[in-house]
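Here's what a typical entry looks like (carboxypeptidase C):
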Amino acid sequence: MLLSALFTVLAAPFARARQDASSLPTLHLADPPHQSYLNAGLSQQASALQNLTLGALSSVAHTVLAHPAFPEYSVRIKKSDGFCDAGVRAYTGYIDIRQARHLFFYFFESRGDPETDDVVMWTNGGPGCSSALGLFMELGPCRVYDAEKGPMRNPYAWTESANVFFVDQPVGIGFSYAEYGERVSSTEEAARDVAAFVAIFFETFKQFRGRAFHMAGESYSGRYIPLFAAEVYDQNKRLVETGMERINLQSIIIGNGYTDWVSMSSAYVDMVCTNSSVPPVASISSCVAAKKAVPRCLKWAQEACIDTFDAINCAAAQSFCNTRLWAPATGLNLYDITKPCDGSIEETMCYPITTQISAYLDRPATRALLGVDPFFGSKNFTRCSDPVGDAFVASGDMLQAGATTEYVAQLLERGVRVLEFAGTLDWMCNWLGNERWTRGMGWSGKEAFGRAEMRVWGVDGETAGEVRSARGLTFATVYGAGHMVPYDKPKEALALFQRWLANEEL
């Protein structure tokens, strides 16, 4: 969810290895505690890892993975079977960076064929919201509707057809944490951490080497994912040079993404003042006032944020656009304009299931099973962090509209497929704005994509939405879904995902 930044805007209106760079990673079995693990030496011989598999991992202690190509990174991982879906093998752990930043992750093997199915990494947005929301609310193998009853099997989980990671990033959200005053405040910085983790994982667990890999997310992941994928792609050259195998990056998948805020700006007005998805829901007076501000907003944003990037002037332009163009949506559920918020946005994010997820993850038994670091003690689980969101705003990360679409374009030019899907009832990162940037983005396939007509796609004989596709870029809408498509339309979201992985027409 794009939540932390929303509050901000509205308030303003790895053990270092001593081996040759081509050697295998080292391994160490350590107890979970926070500093004891970090101060331990990684002494076991590298040859012991030649046949390391996920099945060999301990369910009691973390196995620590490292590689000399990434001297500042290590990974703690353990089995965590039984907490989500009895039919799926699960693993949890931490990505440790310079012994100061620690990113928590969940990994679930596929219900299908984990030995051949693709690998997918999912992250939620914010900036500053935990991927536990995606796991326990949307596309994971279980959902948590009631903290006391615990997880219930999700028949429409994306683990039906893929091995899936859920990563809590950046530090400061979920069970991720930082020490010594460290923090992450830009997507570029976060991308380096994620790419290093991906390389260490694939290099260590050889059953996944060469497997098709997809990076996915929603909301502010519309900025995260293009940059994460670009870092993974560019990192491949360095991996090959050090004797490692390249990551087989096949595609990126973005749901209701915040990729180009400029294209999104005018769409904010159209979503509530026209019949774009539903009949107008805003007052006539607020729509008239907002429409008058659209030309100035777009001109100012183009000059200050796209043609040339002036951080101060661009921030001023964005502030003007948000203040004037968000006004008609005041009081609405910004994630589904057809429904009222169920509870306050501060407490439930409009969806009470989020409070149940937090309560479940605050249970000591749950934390013990997951191997949550003792650093947390009695601290509450952090669904979304305002300080993390504020840091991204302060760094100017949210202003990089033109830069983000250029990353998407460069991935397409290199054969990495791109899927942008959007629920038609979301206002925050709506389908209109996402359609506009996909059509306006400069790349060699722009004309072909622009000529492609929107056509209906469906599931089990029922219309599910519309789709346009050309030259590796696909844009799809999902009718009746808001910001969290896999939550609102789980069957349709799974069908979309499965067809995408199979490289089939939607």
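The two ends are 25 Å apart (CA to CA).

More examples are in the samples folder.
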